[in-house]
Write a structure and sequence with these properties.
Elements: H1 5-14, H2 20-31, E1 33-39, E2 43-49, E3 62-65, E4 68-71, E5 79-86, E6 89-97, E7 110-113, H3 120-128, E8 132-135
Parallel strand pairs: 3-8
Antiparallel strand pairs: 1-2, 2-6, 3-5, 4-5, 4-7, 5-6
C-alpha cells in the first residue's frame, strides 16, 4: 500500500541534505511502500517494503533517528516521529503523541524540526558510526 502524504513529508524532512548517505536513504524512501501500518490510538507504526532490493547504506548501519515534530489543533502537546534503519535500509516509521489521541485529521498537522533546526550532523554521525546507536 502507498505511504500517506504525512509519512512522505516526514521522510522528506528527516532525510534532507546534500550528503550521499542521505541521498541513498531518500532513494529508498522514493520506492518505499507500506507493508503494514498499525494505529495505536496515540500514533502509528508503518513498516516499509520495497518493490526491489534497495541499495543499503555503506557499512549497513542500524540506528533510530527523529528530529521532526508535529503540531495540530487536535494535539495539546504535539507529536514526534522516529525513523528506524536496519542494516542500512529504511525499516519503519513511528509517529507518536505525547499525551493525546492521534489526530483524526492528518491534514491539520504541521511539521517542524525540534529546536527549529534539522540535526543533520546527528543522523550523519549515526550513519557513519560503528554498531547500533539511537538518537531521538
Amino acid at each position: 500500500m502507498k505511504l500517506t502524504t504525512l509519512e512522505r513529508n516526514v521522510l522528506e524532512m528527516l532525510l534532507a541534505g546534500p550528503e550521499p548517505e542521505l541521498a541513498t536513504l531518500r532513494a529508498q524512501a522514493g520506492s518505499a511502500q507500506a507493508a503494514d501500518r498499525r494505529l495505536s490510538g496515540v500514533g502509528f507504526y508503518t513498516k516499509f517494503a520495497f518493490p526491489s532490493e534497495p541499495v543499503p547504506l555503506p557499512g549497513r548501519p542500524t540506528f533510530d533517528f527523529g528530529d521532526v515534530n508535529a503540531k495540530s489543533p487536535q494535539l495539546a502537546f504535539g507529536a514526534g516521529f522516529v525513523l528506524f534503519v536496519r542494516g542500512g535500509v529504511l525499516d519503519a516509521l513511528e509517529g507518536y503523541t505525547y499525551d493525546d489521541p492521534w489526530p483524526t485529521d492528518e491534514a491539520s498537522i504541521t511539521l517542524g524540526f525540534k529546536g527549529g533546526v534539522h540535526k543533520r550532523d546527528t543522523i550523519l554521525q549515526l550513519i557513519r558510526g560503528a554498531g547500533t546507536a539511537t538518537r531521538r
